[in-house]
Specification:
Largest sheet: none
Radius of gyration: 18 Å
Shape: elongated
Number of helices: 5
Distance between the termini: 31 Å
Strand content: under 5%
Length: 118
């Protein structure tokens, strides 16, 4: 079960799970209270607007990193992390991608994972 799972991959995975739980706990509260998501983002004042812009820029930069790095490492379906961030949360998908990236890098360093030289 722990094949190619490094401590760093487990840290990323834990952050991914914390991101999912943290964001969706507030999303569920908002859904139960029938809140207007877009209205709350726009009308809550400059502090929330600043945080929104900050997180949006970080998410865009992270999304670019995900796509470029997934292609560079030959990870199939890398773009799905970006798509799923719109359905779940970037705080979930980005650390999840980092965990899977770490596994890919570890597998590439493992001698058994390399094809034999002919």
């Amino acid at each position: 079960m722990t094949k190619h799972w490094t401590p760093l991959a487990f840290v990323y995975l834990a952050l991914s799970i914390a991101g999912l739980a943290g964001t969706w706990s507030y999303n569920v509260i908002a859904i139960i209270q029938l809140r207007d998501f877009v209205g709350d983002w726009v009308n809550s004042g400059p502090a929330v607007s600043s945080l929104t812009v900050d997180l949006l820029i970080a998410a865009v930069a992270g999304s670019i990193l995900i796509i470029v790095e997934a292609r560079r490492l030959g990870m199939k379906w890398g773009w799905l992390y970006v798509v799923f961030s719109g359905v779940t949360a970037f705080a979930f998908t980005f650390p999840l991608f980092l965990a899977m990236r770490e596994r890919t890098l570890t597998a590439a360093r493992t001698p058994a994972a390399r094809p034999p030289l002919t």
